[in-house]
Write a structure and sequence with these properties.
Blueprint lengths: L3 E2 L7 E2 L10 E5 L3 H11 L3 E5 L3 E6 L2 E6 L14 E5 L2 H13 L15 E6 L5 E6 L39
Parallel strand pairs: 3-6, 7-9
Antiparallel strand pairs: 1-2, 4-5, 5-6, 8-9
Amino acid sequence: MKYRDRNSGGASKVTGPPKLTSFDHASMPSHDVAESIRFYGSVLGGELVVKEDQFALFKIAGTRIGIGSSGTTFMTENAEYPHIAFNIGPDALVRMKDWLTACGVPTSNFWTRKGIETLMFFRDPSGNVIELFCDSGYDGAADLPRGPARGHGITLDIDELRYTHWHIPADGS
């Protein structure tokens, strides 16, 4: 491992970065923290860990996702980056698309880059892009629309995924 030599007497010598130990969290901007709490908790099934007036922290799929309304910037039109992504199995991918539709959240169609993986995008109520990535096993992946090696290209219009109203279905399904 490379490190900064503090015992050389004089100036420190930097020989490379230390190894990072783990990923802690990603933080996303929010127009309305209370709405984001409902969305990330009830729609994505996140566990609320911290709740403050201008900030909330969720644990989703083993990752902590922060939602804040102070000192934030928002995505510009037609922007895919930055976004957060979650891995998901093929059956869960189909169920999540159905669930998001029931909640009034627009989703992209399923698409692929190489005919093996299946991807889908949607946005949270503040416009942040979320990707669901199924690395293999989706029946019909080879026949899905193809996107470029990076980004969505012309496979979908990412701005069509913006919305102003959504809901939790009355029966929870």
